[in-house]
Amino acid sequence: MDNKAKSNKEDILSLANSLRWDLGVNFHDTVIESIYNDASKIANKTVRIQGKRPAYSLDLKIDRIVTSPWLGFPIMFLLLALVFWITISGANVPSGLLASLLVDTLHPILKGFAASIGMPWWLDGVLIDGAYLAMAWVIAVMLPPMAIFFPLFTLLEDFGYLPRVAFNMDSLFRKVGAHGKQALTLSMGFGCNAAGVIAARVIDSPRERLIAIITNNFSLCNGRWPTQILIATIFIGGAVPAHLAGLVSAGAVVGIAVLGIGFSLLVSWGLSKSILRGEASAFSLELPPYRPPRILQTLYTSLIDRTIFVLWRAIVFAIPAGILIWLVANVNIGGISLAEHFVQGTAPFAAIFGLNGVILLAYIIAIPANEIVIPTILMLTVLTAGTTGVGEGAGVMFELDSIGDTENLLRAGGWTLLTAINLMLFSLLHNPCSTTIYTIYKETKSLKWTLVSTFLPIALGFIVCFFTTQLWMILMA
Amino acid sequence: MWLAITPGATLLIGLLILGIIIWVFWPKKGLLSRWTRSSMNAQRVLLEDALKFVFDCEYKNIPCGLNSIAGNLNISTDKAAKLLDRLRTMGLIQMDDRAFELTDTGRSYALRIIRVHRIWERYLADETGVGQMEWHGEADYKEHRMSIEAADELAAQMGNPVFDPHGDPIPSAKGEIPDHKGQSLGSLKEGNIARIVHIEDEPKAIYQQLVALGLYPGMEVYILDITDGKITFAANGEECILTTLFASSITVELMPEKEERSPKYEVLTSLPIGHQAKIIGISPNCRGQQRRRLMDLGIVPGTVISAEMKSASGDPIGYRILGATIAIRKNQAQYIFIDKIEEKVHETTT
């Protein structure tokens, strides 16, 4: 009996298999269609719709305006510019307060306390000048802009406006093989690249999501704006007549940001045509109905999920990096510090790219946050140029209150207009900060794409700086 | 000191290094990828390709001689004769007089390779974004490297497909394959309605042109006219003219003329803003994830769809489907067939 049943079963299975060939290619579709048919039959029997929904026609009126060919883009640029302006101007005061509290007040108190209990100089250096100071700096410069930017952005999202931005921008991004929603992750990247990478979750097509993640670093993030503004003011503003200085230096910074968008599109195109060509791709974009934003909920989720989340990751990386920064400036071999060894050793290499050893070292050890690059550069410049009377000592990051003093220090470190231009380019085109790298790994779960996102911008940075420098030398010779 | 080189020379050296790096690492055409591609057993590839060809001849009942093998594999007849001899000593084919045929071992070997080839094509079509023109070449490369176990696993993940994207049946794991059926497009008569079941992907030049015409398996054709050397037919509302040579690359299945079918379809891109239409279907040319996504959104025959708004840049367009507004790009909307409903959805604001 058993055997018979078994052979019967196999007969049926093999018959079923051979019948599948007769079904033709479309039978999966037929299944889905019949599911929809049944569902709509059930819905017709059981669901009654009363009247027309009035809210929907209001939606349509708003959509007519924000997606119109004339008003669509101006409205979008105005809203985004407004968000950035509120962020940059609003963050200054709380950032200053936090810096004066954590760096100017608490740091000396901690130092005093360490001295009073007789802590050895190296332990006090590693813990307070290294770990604590790096952490304090990251909090002071990162927290305020993010705490302003993320809630504003989330409000726009919650209201339903951001999907319309993606809708309007899609044709540009389609041409480079990306998704319209990349306009959103790109804008988010101007706030913070790590948050921009997380925001790429909204892109549901695997290929386009990877493109958005890899190219997010080309959005000039909050941590890099102050560097750009400072260097542009000193060197580019200083190279033109005084009455033009403000305009030209502002133009240079905006130019770098626009160059970043250009690179973002160019690299998206390159990736979609080369290594990501075979990845699956599917476009869909829902335009949800508008609704009044839920302010409290937005504040809560954007502060907890985005601001605190990113800040925490930055702090976790800032502490070991702070220790490293202090150590390279204080561990001596043969009478000079590791930092000086590195700076002198890489000088000829860096010169080809129009940079210097200090900049290279600063970008390596200040990897946790772009915000601490300038303080690290200043500290290293003092250390290697042997300037006296400025700074807080070896391994202690600092910033100068006066732009003039900063300029004098950098010029003493051998900086020229070319160095400044290359630093601005390299600040745009270098590896993402460690927080972002870690986030990319968490999001893609792939070492390969993490490495690509890390090293592709560095390679581009060196190429761009190299050609800028060499052409400059030929033209200026 | 090496820095003392003049800037111009440094620039040239930089360009040179960049050029070399690109030359070595460029995807697909670079030195590195060429090297990895060429480092495989050329002899085995040739043997397997010959087996595949002999099987194809037997399957389609085409006589298969030494010359056609040499021509297909692009080798000299001498080499082809040696190849056949090797196949015979391996017990994969048997020869008597001038004719040869596959042994059972040879047949099951050939079927395994064909199975890997077609599963891989199905995979490329459904699960990746690799372009239609590249499926065959990629699968030709993969069929010699992928183990049958890996192919079985892949097939299981895709729900054991039974056809490849060209409409060819995929041999089952046990080596079963349905009998060859269908007829050449050229053998139809005026007024016939037929469905394309297969488009031969070799030679590539012909396949390329047929694809460029927008023909695909599953498409219905309506024969309008057959004259000497030319066949005219309607496909999705467009008129096509092919020569007999091209038509012989297309295999069709005659359809009973049961239901009234409008020979002309309109596509979603032609729907003006503010108008409604009923969906007829999605073109089989839209595959894989993209197709599933559209169907998940409710784009199935019978659903009512209305064009709501144009993006500021003109593309995509927002459509209202089952109570939700979904943006669809022009290059997807062209795959969706509709039947316009002559009535406005709602009064447009003036």
Listing every helix as H and every strand as E from the N terminus to the C terminus, the arrangement of chain B reads HHHHHEEHHHEEHEEEHEEEHEEEHE
The span between the termini of chain B is 76 Å
General shape of chain A: elongated
In DSSP terms, counting alpha (H) and pi (I) runs of 4 or more, how many helices of chain A?
A: 19
CATH topology of the domain at 266-344 in chain B: SH3 type barrels
Nearest-integer average pLDDT of chain B: 81
What's the end-to-end separation of chain A, in Å? Answer: 98 Å
How large is the radius of gyration of chain B? 26 Å
Q: How many runs of DSSP E, i.e. beta strands of chain B?
A: 14
Largest sheet of chain B: 6 strands, antiparallel
Oligomer: heterodimer
Globular, elongated, flat, extended or rod-shaped: what is the shape of chain B?
Answer: globular
Q: Please, what is the CATH homologous superfamily of the domain at 266-344 in chain B?
A: Ferrous iron transport protein A (FeoA)
Low-confidence stretches of chain A: none
Helix content percent band of chain B: 25-40%
Please state the average pLDDT score of chain A.
87
Strand order of the largest sheet of chain B: 3-8-4-5-6-7
Q: How much helix is in the residues of chain A? A: over 70%
Give a verbal description of the structure.
The complex is a heterodimer of chains A (477) and B (350). Chain A is an all-alpha fold. Chain A has helices at 2-23, 27-46, 54-66, 72-116, 121-159, 162-175, 182-191, 193-199, 206-215, 225-239, 242-273, 295-330, 338-352, 357-365, 373-385, 403-412, 417-428, 434-444, 447-476; strands at residues 285-286, 332-333, 336-337. Helices cover 76% and strands 1% of the residues of chain A. In chain A, strands 2-3 form a two-stranded antiparallel sheet. In chain A, strand 2 (332-333) and strand 3 form a beta hairpin. In chain A, helix 14 packs across helix 15 (373-385) and helix 15 crosses helix 16 (403-412). Chain A is elongated and about 90 Å long. Chain B is α+β, with helices and mostly antiparallel strands. Chain B is globular and about 75 Å long. Chains A and B meet through helix 1, helix 2, helix 3, helix 6 and strand 1 of A and helix 1, helix 11, strand 11 and strand 13 of B. Strand 1 (285-286) of chain A pairs antiparallel with strand 13 of chain B.
